[in-house]
Write a structure and sequence with these properties.
With about 260 residues, the protein is α/β, with parallel strands linked by helices. It contains eight helices and ten strands. The strands form three sheets. A five-stranded parallel sheet has the order 5-4-3-10-9. Strand 1 and strand 2 form a beta hairpin. The longest helix has 21 residues.
Length: about 260
Amino acid sequence: MNENLVIAGKSYSSRLLVGTGKYKDFAETKAAVDASGAEIVTFAIRRSNIGQNPDEPSLLEILPTSQYTLLPNTAGCYTASDAVRTLRLARELLEGHSLVKLEVLGDPQSLYPNVIETVAAAKILADEGFQVMAYASDDPIIAKQLEDIGCVAIMPLASLIGSGMGILNPWNLQLIMERVQVPVIVDAGVGTASDAAIAMELGCDGVLMNTAIAAAQQPVLMAGAMKKAVEAGREAYLAGRMPKKLYSASPSSPMENIIAPTGS
């Protein structure tokens, strides 16, 4: 029942995707990633060394491509041209790697996605053979446009990046899932394990997070909690929850053939 997540034709047993920023050092990054069980690991190409700075430690030393699918992202980009240029660099550094996370932000305060620039960048990248996982608002119209362009996954926010506010609009997420066929992966806003479980119970295909783990008091412990939450949420979705019934009492034990009380 708990079939694998498939993105761009590749199968993954974990439905939790994690970031690599905000940890105190590479050792903590590695421990948290391992505890999460994630197979897809994203990093900001503008902020992470993967070989472009030979005198600095490389992320590839702790997260080798033989063990993880690396997902370079365009965090810090505010225009389509900057995002495209950044991912072209990532492809060169990673020797032709094509799976990328597109993220074009609207402003440095809210970090809300600029969907106009995102759509423009997605068109260019798809035409150049990139397999684009697109971070976007929870707008079902934009989600469908990104799928039609050729994006391999749609990544709507649950709430603002780094806010930890959880899923603020589950209805829009459901509209997106009804309209697109590619995987829908909740990205941004998850704060704790219950947020991740809710996303999966709604029917989302996966969850991507960074701050929720890295900013926890014990990141490695939180990473393990997120792993369990995603798995439990997926199983609950597949099992199918009982219907909600307002003011409709229903005993958990059958009432037939019970022993009648005796009077004195």
